[in-house]
Amino acid sequence: MANIKQTVKLGVFTLAIMNVTAVVSLRGLPAEAVYGMSSAFYYLFAAIVFLIPTSLVAAELAAMFQDKQGGVFRWVGEAYGKKLGFLAIWVQWIESTIWYPTVLTFGAVSIAFIGMNDVHDMALANNKYYTLVVVLVIYWLATFISLKGMSWVGKVAKVGGLVGTIIPAGLLIVLGIIYLATGGHSNMDFHSSFFPDLTNFDNVVLAASIFLFYAGMEMGGIHVKDVNNPSKNYPKAVFIGALITVLIFVLGTFALGVIIPAKDISLTQSLLVGFDNYFRYIHASWLSPIIAIALAFGVLAGVLTWVAGPSKGIFAVGKAGYMPPFFQKTNKLGVQKNILFVQGGAVTILSLLFVVMPSVQSFYQILSQLTVVLYLIMYMLMFSGAIVLRYKMKKLNRPFRIGKGGNGLMWLVGGLGFCGSLLAFVLSFIPPSQISTGSNTVWFSVLIIGALIVVIAPFIIYASKKPSWVDPNSTFEPFHWEEQPAAQVAGKTATVTAGTTASAAASENVAPASTKNTPPKG
């Protein structure tokens, strides 16, 4: 089996498509369609300063610690210590928890458009009580399925990714081309400027959320050792995958902008409305319910896979003594049941914000922004940590390395990623003027208080941890800066012991010798 495993390698294009499938989601296209032609600028800008740096930095870190547990906890912990490492994996877990209501909101809207009455479908999609019920029912259903540990969930997710994302994306782009080629009226001004008016601060605020479109590309770093000649072929896969991803986003956004006026764009409904309009144009309205089912299936299949996924990282770290025993409990199948229940409770509370927010759209936007804020904290720690490790762990083998020699290219790539993440982090706190988010007080309160609670919580947990929290069966390896002092102490102990033994042996040898060699008295 070992030999077979070694001979199976991923091709460049295969890995590129895997990255595309992991990153691309159509639910965010309406947010950028508001910008018209300048949306392409934002996509390209975010790809250069975030998508590509994320892929390359994560590949180096994943290859460095390929035999160590912990993921981002390991990467950041090696650079900055356990506290910040715990913060990194904590915000990654919480971010994914907050992500569920937003992605399921999109799923609920897709289900609402399965009907054939546009007016009724749109009214249902905008009904926050309907959305709340669908989000909670589907989420808890996915949680209980995850507790069963069903192996077929992965297969469902793969099919869902293809049926619910890749095929609809291609179809949307093709429909847009057919519409324009046959003389359809474009609601997008293709003669407008590619570069946005950056003097108008409102133009860049909403675009901050585009960074989350590309989030998750760091997961592709785990495959860096599965590629032949990774130093050459992995960057190729990254750039091909990035190009395909950007093309899907740009052309998909244009396709929506062509068929829907910017003033009528809704974050939650416009993707379905766009398909409806195109199908009506080609006299194939019967396809609308089918595409709605496909999109809903893609969303639900993705959630089914990820409900248990991100919690596995915090579970492994928790067993090493960083989380109370309550969070380490599993069911008979070894699934982290208590973490899943706590995660479900958080999703339920967040979903109840529907009652407070003025609309489904405002709820969707504010939770999306909170997700961005938290995820970007992890990314800033990852980018800066990668640079720090170039100096802290100079001699460690790097199967994949950014730049052949020196640290200049790492400073450039990691620095771009850090600065891009910092810019998006700051902009994420400002309410976008293009979208009604209700009261600014609610907006700032949820973002600032929510972010503070999430960031402070891991430090409180870390300060409270006890030796009894460590699971005796945990095989979590110590950090390199813990191993070095231990090795030095062991070395000194060995030296002292050897010296003592030698002295004792010398004493034993000398005394009898002197006795034997001493002439008898008298």
Question: How does this model look, in words?
Answer:
This protein has 522 residues and is mainly alpha-helical. Helix 6 crosses helix 16, helix 9 packs across helix 13 and helix 13 runs antiparallel to helix 14.
The total strand number stands at 0
Indicate the structural class. Answer: mainly alpha
Distance between the termini: 81 Å
- Our count of helices gives 20
**Rg, Å, rounded:** 28 Å
Q: Give the assembly state of these chains.
A: single chain
**Could you name the ranges where pLDDT drops below 50 across 5 or more consecutive residues?**
1-7, 504-522
Shape: globular
User: What is the H/E order?
Assistant: HHHHHHHHHHHHHHHHHHHH
Helicity level: 55-70%
Quote the average pLDDT.
80
Approximate strand percentage: under 5%
- Major β-sheet annotation: none
Quick structural gist:
The chain is mostly helical.
How would you describe this structure in keywords?
20 helices; globular; disordered N terminus; disordered C terminus; single chain; mainly alpha; 522 residues
Strand and helix layout:
Blueprint: H1 2-7, H2 12-23, H3 29-33, H4 39-64, H5 72-80, H6 82-112, H7 118-125, H8 128-147, H9 153-181, H10 202-205, H11 210-213, H12 230-259, H13 270-281, H14 287-306, H15 309-322, H16 337-351, H17 360-392, H18 408-427, H19 440-464, H20 480-517
Helix pairs in contact: 2-12, 4-12, 4-17, 4-18, 5-6, 5-17, 6-7, 6-8, 6-14, 6-15, 6-16, 6-17, 6-19, 8-14, 8-16, 9-12, 9-13, 9-14, 13-14, 17-18, 17-19
